[in-house]
Amino acid sequence: MQKTYYPKKDEVTSHWYLVDATGMNLGRLATRVARALLGKDKPQFTPGVPMGDYVVVINVEKIEVTGRKLDEKFYYRHSGYPGGLKKITLREQLKRFPERVLESAVWGMLPKNRHGRKLIKRLKLYAGVDHPHKAQKPKPLP
């Protein structure tokens, strides 16, 4: 009889990775980060188990997009009141809140449940070069 392997909490090791987003494509970077957060590249990967790694992304403001997305892609939010729908272009979002652009792209690739909410907390985004995670000694993302 075969038994299904389910990793225990003490068997899972999480690493810290550092990614410099300068000149990287938004979608391709979001895919790599989402895979690292989920732990899909680990041999003992099990869906629904938080076995991914922590990812620190710096220079998010220098991310690139292709085509006419800067002016044609919109981010929407609603205040909850009638007529409270606001929209902002990708160009404005990158100028005002560059971290939200990558966070939104990565969140779109994670499961929309408790597991996904745990994973998105492992993502640390910074517009500039400085980050407070030097003590964790993050390695470059392979």
List descriptors.
single chain; 142 residues; alpha/beta; Ribosomal Protein L13p, Chain: A; four-stranded parallel sheet; two-stranded antiparallel sheet; 5 helices; 6 strands; 18% strand; globular
Can you describe this structure?
- With 142 residues, the protein is of the alpha/beta class.
- It has one domain: Ribosomal Protein L13p, Chain: A, CATH 3.90.1180.10.
- 29% of the residues lie in helices and 18% in strands.
- It has helices at residues 26-38, 69-72, 90-96, 98-107, 114-120, and strands at residues 16-20, 54-58, 74-78, 85-89, 123-125, 139-140.
- Strands 5-2-1-6 form a 4-stranded parallel sheet, with helices on one face. A two-stranded antiparallel ribbon has the order 3-4.
- The longest helix is centred in the N-terminal third of the chain and has 13 residues, at 26-38.
- It is globular and about 60 Å long.
- It starts with 15 loop residues before the first strand and ends with a strand.
- The model has no long low-confidence stretch (mean pLDDT 94).
Write the layout of secondary structure elements.
Layout lengths: L15 E5 L5 H13 L15 E5 L10 H4 L1 E5 L6 E5 H7 L1 H10 L6 H7 L2 E3 L13 E2 L2
Parallel strand pairs: 1-2, 1-6, 2-5
Antiparallel strand pairs: 3-4
Helix pairs in contact: 1-4, 3-4
